[in-house]
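*** Fold description ***
***
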Amino acid sequence: MAVIPMPYSPATVARSFSILDGVTIQGVLYQIIWDPKTPFAAVIEAAPSVIDGDIRHKVVATLELQRRSQLEGVFVRKFWEEQDVAQIEGIVVDGAVRDVGLATFVYETIATKAGVILLSDNEQYEGGKALWQHIARRSTNLKVFILDTDSARYYPFDGDRICYDGESIPESEIWSEHPDRNKHGVVLVAESVNGKAA
């Protein structure tokens, strides 16, 4: 389960992360920081403040990812060759900055600035479904595809692949409802519209 970590010292941010982008929300500048080795992203307040007596950057969101050599029946390196691919383990956004599009911005930043192809996990709850549908409908920086990892084919499963726009592919082709696991092998794939890191 993804959790928001303790605040980071400026030295930790400088040593362990690269700053990919920034965004201002309600007059506060936040930075998206990225550790490609872990892989892990966080959103921090750009200006450090005194927290528990120390100078720290407050963390307001985290994105936990995992690189896998295989997804169900798909060998990641064979399928995506030299591209950086990571499966999402979870995203957590603090309530103070929730519902302003921050999760979407983090996904876009990791895909466009770090050049990572993002894969959903195989278990989608209502919040995850809503986020992926929002990204598919609204993002101008990402294109979303549906991949069946059991058959190693993109929707419509005929050798081609079409972009998912949040409505263009029936939900029954993407998600199955518990206890049915018929669509467990289906993941969503988010790629930069430019195809590479900026």
